[in-house]
Each structure stands twice: as C-alpha cells, then as structure tokens.
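Structure ticket #2291
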Amino acid sequence: MKKAHHRLRRLCAFLIGLVFLASGLLKLLDPVGTGLIISEYLKFFHIGFLQGASKALGMGLSLLEAATGAALVTGVFRKTTAIITSVLVLFFTAVTFILWLANPEMDCGCFGEAIHLTHAQTLLKNLVLLALALVAFLPFQNFGVSRRGKYVAFFLALPSLVFALWYNHRHLPMIDFTEFAPGVELFASLDNDYQEMDGKVPTFIYERDGQRGSFSLNNLPDSTWTFVGVDTLSRSVYRSEDKPVLSFRDAEGTYQDEMAVLGKVVTFSVYDPGKADWPLIREQAADVRAQGATPLVLTVPGEGIPQDFPVYYGDYKPLITLNRANGGATYIDNGEIISKWSPKDVPSGSEWTGLLERDSVDAFTDFTVKRRIKAQGFALYLLALLLLL
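Resolution: structure written out below.
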C-alpha cells in the first residue's frame, strides 16, 4: 500500500513536470513574445515600473518553468522542487482566478503563442495542477531518492535550455506561431473577396525639423514632435476572416498597405528606432533593391530615424509580430510570407539572387522544414535525455 502511494505521488509529480516543461519550452521558443505577455500582465496589475524588465522577466520565468519541469520529470532535488512547484502553482492559480473574475481582453500566455486558452480554461488547468500537487507533495515528507543518472540528465538539460533560449532570441523562433508566420498570405485590398466598409480615420498632425507627419491615436510620436492639428482621413477599411492585416502609411498619412503584396518584397521592421542598426538596414535594403526586389522599411515614429531614409510608419504590435527582431527582415512574395531573418542573419547580395530566383513554394518549404527539424530535434533530444538516461 505504501509503495503504491509512493508511485501515485511520483506519477502526479511527473504529470505536473510535463506541463511545466511544455509551457517553459514553448515560451523559450519565443522570448520576445513572452516578454510581450509579461508586459500585458504588468499593465493589468498596474505595476508599470517593471515594464522595462518585461523581456528579462519573461525569459527568467520560462527558464524557471522549464527547469522545474525537468526536475519534476527526473525526480531530482525532490523537496526543493516540491517547494518551488507549490509556490508557482499557487501563484498561477491566484493570478488566473483574478483574470477569470475581471475577464480582461488578454491571453494568459501559459503556452506562449502556440496554444490560446480562455481565462476559464486557464483557471481549470491550474486547479487540476493544484490538485495534482496536493497528491504529489502531501504529506510534505518521504519524497524518496532519485538515481544518480537522473542528476546527470538534469544537469545536461539545464545548459540545453539556456542554449535554446539564446538561440531563439538570437536567430528568431524556430517555430513561428504568430499570425504573420511563414506560409501565411497577407491581407490584400486588391482582392475582391473582402468585406468593405467606409470609415473615417482621425489623424494627428505633428511637426519636427520642418517635416510634418500624420499619426494615429494609438501611435503618437514622442515629445520631440510638436502638435500642429487634427485631420480626418477617409479610408476604405477591409477585413478578412483568414488573412492578417499588415497596415502602414507614409509620412503624409496615406496608407500604403498594397505595397507589401505586390511582387517580391522584403520588409525591415523596426519597432524600436533608437536601438536599430540603421547603417546595416541601409546596406541590406540596397542589396535587396539591387537584386530587383522592393525593400520596405517599416518603423514606428521615434528618435533615431535617419531623416534621409525612406521609411513607412506602422504600429508597434503588428511590427513586433511580423518579425521578433528589431530591424529583422521578412521576405514576402506576392502577399505570401516566405521567410524571416534576424538582422545579423539577413542574406547578402549574392545570396539574395538565388533566393529571389527560386520558386516561392520551394523557398518557403526549405526555410520552414529546416527550422521545424531543429525544434523537433531539440524537443526529442531533451525528452530522451530526461526519460531514458
């Protein structure tokens, strides 16, 4: 009877570990996206002074979840892991209970961008984990001892998790779960199968160094711009149920969305102009133009944008969703997203020639398959390490 109870406790701890490991790994796949999720939580709980650390907090949380999951699966440091797991489960349950009551328009982010749950579903998940934790850790004693091989597996897994976090931050997520993932066809107002409605878009006119620009209410410039007045633009608004909208405008406030879906286009999305490597972007855009494709530099208004650099203005959220890297490149062929790169991985002039001449389906398949093989290979390696060693 005692042996059966011990096995039940280990089974419950193992199940919690699998959930924690999956949750942590999916967050590790998208460090920037995890930072955005943490930022939403900070806004909701009115602790905005931590906004600057949202990415670091997200990375730390994802590593903690994955490491705790690995410890639960292998069964190492059982008492310490039981304490950490209990605190995390209680904390997550309390937070999700508040979200369930308030029902804000935000995703829990439990599994990154891969799996979206409602607040009720998230609360139910955490209540199940809480019940499993009660069985696994109470009474809080006699946890047993793991084999030495499990400690070896755990300490091999830890640097692997850190490497995965670094790789996905440095080279973009191995698997893109966003609405602008490779293979997705962008919204195109040239198509005829969209619902259309006329709308009035209020814009705010600002001026800086003799240059005027139009900005939306959700994308106002910084204090270096001087407010001039308000204008209202007439715009046809299109919607599609299955195609995302990539919307941007020129300095006069005219929307130029169709430019992204005509021919071969490479966008350079800059969501933090002050930290972008503008000389590198200028060089890469020139390479793209020299090979016959259209470079589009999409940014948000702010300090640091070269005045002699042709840019278009978009909103922060779509730009950071389009490409997680600040200044990252995205290749689009006739409205279909083919591939993405972080700034340091963007092809050079000669490499662009071969890429642009390839069939878009082949280029997309080659790019996507390679990244998925890396992600699946890493996941299988980690599971084999934790379960078989």
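Closing remark: The longest helix spans residues 360-388.
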